[in-house]
Amino acid sequence: MTAGKLRPVPAAAIAEWHETADVVIAGYGIAGVSAAIEAARSGAQVLILERTSGWGGAAALAGGFVYLGGGTPLQRALGFEDSAENMEKFLLAAVGPGADAAKIADYCRGSLEHYDWLVGNGVPFREALWDEPGWEPPHDEGLAYSGGENAAPFNAVASPAPRGHVPRMRDKRTGERGGGYMLMKPLAETAEALGVRVSYDVRLTRLIVDGERVVGVLARRYGREIAVRAELGVVLATGGFAYSEQMVADHAPRLIGRPGAAIEEHDGVGILAATAFGAATAHMDATEVAFFGDPQMMARGILVNGQGQRYVTEDTYPGRIGQATLFHQDNQAFLVIDEQAHEEALATETATPVFRVPPTWAAETVAELEADMGLPELALQTTVEVYNTYAAQGLDPLFGKKPEWLRPLTGAVAAFDLRGATAGFPLGGLRTDLDSRVLHVSGEPIPGLFAAGRCTAGICTGGYVSGASLGDGSFYGRRAGLAAAKGEVE
Amino acid sequence: MTAGKLRPVPAAAIAEWHETADVVIAGYGIAGVSAAIEAARSGAQVLILERTSGWGGAAALAGGFVYLGGGTPLQRALGFEDSAENMEKFLLAAVGPGADAAKIADYCRGSLEHYDWLVGNGVPFREALWDEPGWEPPHDEGLAYSGGENAAPFNAVASPAPRGHVPRMRDKRTGERGGGYMLMKPLAETAEALGVRVSYDVRLTRLIVDGERVVGVLARRYGREIAVRAELGVVLATGGFAYSEQMVADHAPRLIGRPGAAIEEHDGVGILAATAFGAATAHMDATEVAFFGDPQMMARGILVNGQGQRYVTEDTYPGRIGQATLFHQDNQAFLVIDEQAHEEALATETATPVFRVPPTWAAETVAELEADMGLPELALQTTVEVYNTYAAQGLDPLFGKKPEWLRPLTGAVAAFDLRGATAGFPLGGLRTDLDSRVLHVSGEPIPGLFAAGRCTAGICTGGYVSGASLGDGSFYGRRAGLAAAKGEVE
To answer: Per the database record, which ranges form the FAD-dependent oxidoreductase 2 FAD-binding domain (chains A, B) (predicted)?
Structure first.
């Protein structure tokens, strides 16, 4: 009988409680720290269990976009109009079918307050815009487009506004660190100033339950099992499942062999421990996808698939290009660019110089390039013919690339082989409500159990925007802390 | 406290057992009847609980393909070579990343024996081949291609062999019925001759458990709750979740508003009851997709997406066209055909005359047709130019359509608007092992709990072939019955 490995343990079977707090939080990344601050401010005694030896989680290694909008002070200072409704319209279009409309509406309506909360807890945003194609700002600009808001088809759905808010990356004590680190640092300092206790090198293993209520967790500390009692609630903030081979194969197989932007601790343990108690999951197949192409070059060239056909708006959010490539083009992509555009792109600044490799093929004509790339004769030539015909008029009726990036490809041409150039992390996880209560498969909340961050299905249930993970992790982390500290029994 | 709606009930809380059997099977479709026969032959007392008032489930309404191969007597009689290895190579390629390789290998190796078992239990297959494009044979031919085995890219991966086995649709007592009905009927008669008891109008609600073991089910009969004890094992054979709006939205949102080929009883209850006890699921996003195009016309024409680009081998299994359209082309499809091909197609027989509607647009030239269809000038014209250039040589380097269907489109042309012309059912469900034991999220089998059919993730975890559902439902239904009747405790 070994099925008990992840099974919840009845409280009655616990001989000794090694630790006790009102609110017990598993995981000290962005969701965990946000939950801790709110729970502590609500008067709860808070204990964070973190399996590594320091705070940060995946968040501290992230570029640092936090997806915020609705007219934040930073947006307004930089001249952008936005509203909760406008942000909601965009997100509903960008995340695709199956969107959690209630969660998106809630997230957008709460965004201004959430911005103030972050700033109030010491998160700095520099009043500068980065308005060029790119994965991230190349310096410490505080605001950038991070989801294709200003590209087709979304620029016709909602009024474009940049919503990628990046914490300032300079600090007189630490020198220069990534935006995610600079988000985590003041929040961790805030939490600890509020008296939040942290126990490091402690790894969640199972939930402890009393009937239908979660009352604590079992965990391992230096190889020894400990029982931790939560008087009011348990918050799971343990991250995603990018590094569980079984879960990736069963739920998000497009990511097999290509985990990205996650940490090895993202092994799905929080999701497993909760589903072992009947918790529901949602959108386990959804994934963020990074694409290893240079955005400045992509905007100036054309992306074609294994048949030499264009398939995506080249001037959009590169994560959208990654999804289009991995999900819909069998991970086959080539970037075709002419010499002039290539030189222009090389003259721009970039946050990802690693993608500025020499082209795979270069040729005097499109016909030669096509042959060199191994495409059937005419496949690429007709694609370029159609593109050029319209580009000369400043039009792209097929994919809606903006006029500023449209110019016929002429003269010497080159192509980058971007087949297989993707990686990503899963977006699915536990199904939670607006108070971050973990929902049972029956649809009812599980008393005493809360979750936030990438162990939950957040606002991005299909498409993705950069900043959504730090965004919903912090937003619903706060909700989890507030709700857990209330400790109401249904 | 209402989270208990689907929660397992401790056996100790059951005051009265209303029914008892060795093996209790929920659902009397193909998986249930197959489990019942094997359990009864193993000497177990078997009770089937069926929520409708008759046997059949979705199976009895299905066209009736059973996916079998490896050199069945029917394949050999009709001149086809096949082997378990060849079948396995095809299936691994056709179902895509995340395939359950062990299950596919097992299924292929067991296919000959499974064919004999079906025939031995009275399932008749007529020795005739249907070798034309089509969803199903138009008469009662017993064998047809049902997964694109003889089309690109699979015809280069494995030696093409038809594996869609269709039970003979004539019966002197019932006249003509569908293949699925003619599959179910002899099996149901066999089960009942073996003494299997059936209780109709009884709906599974929850599992009854003793520690980590499943020992029975709660069910509703005419509005009253009954407790049914299973001395050896419970088999879930309750079908998929096409008709659970919540589950479709959370797991397979591409099917929102377009459920197909399923019955309303497919509300996911078996999946929910088991996951409430910690059962694992897999591939909940995977879906079969039907496409409302005429296969004879598609093979003779070209399918283009919303940009006027070809995107799929037109002479392949139409379910593969459906998946390509819904998953990868935003459900945008047009069929373009010339007058000669249209007339040839109309002269063929079809099992789906409902798709033989008049074209949406007809024009003297491709340029005119392109304009009528609302496509940007040149988009369709260049597609036809490339297609025709190669078709004249009997080639299709882009998608590999077979030479027999390649001819340049000339003269008057027409197009069918097939945007949104898809429907489907989910393929994901409970994760089971080769003995149809339901696996806990820990990876270990849940003692006493077995499952088969569309409440489980079967052999098709991404791509689909017609006959896979009746195929793995019957194959793993048998395994469930055998394993449950053994009643071994881990």
So the answer is: 22-467
Cα distances from B357 to residues B318, B375, B416, in angstroms, run 17, 22, 9
Backbone angles phi, psi at A200, to 5 degrees: -90, 165
**Which residue among B1, B5, B446 places its CB closest to the CB of A3?**
B446
Any A CB within 8 A of B247 CB? no
Tokens coding A224 = 């020894």
Q: Provide CATH code, domain A293-420.
A: 3.90.700.10
In chain B, which segments carry CATH 3.90.700.10?
293-420
- On the 0-12 / 13-18 / 19+ scale of CB atoms within 10 A, A3 is buried
Helix, strand, coil percent values for chain B (each to nearest 5): 35, 20, 45
Residue A299's Cβ-count burial label (10 Å; 0-12, 13-18, 19+) is: buried
**What's the CA gap between A25 and A32, in Å, rounded?**
6
Is CATH 3.50.50.60 the right assignment for the domain spanning A1-292+423-490? yes
Q: Is the ipTM of this complex over 0.90?
A: yes
B399/A376 Cβ within 8 A: no
Cβ–Cβ below 8 Å for B98 and A6 = no
Identify all chain B residues contacting A256, using CB atoms and an 8 Å cutoff.
97-98
Q: For the segment B278-294, what is each residue's pLDDT rounded down to a tens digit?
A: 999 999 999 999 999 99
Residues carrying CATH 3.50.50.60, chain A: 1-292+423-490
* pTM, entire model: 0.96
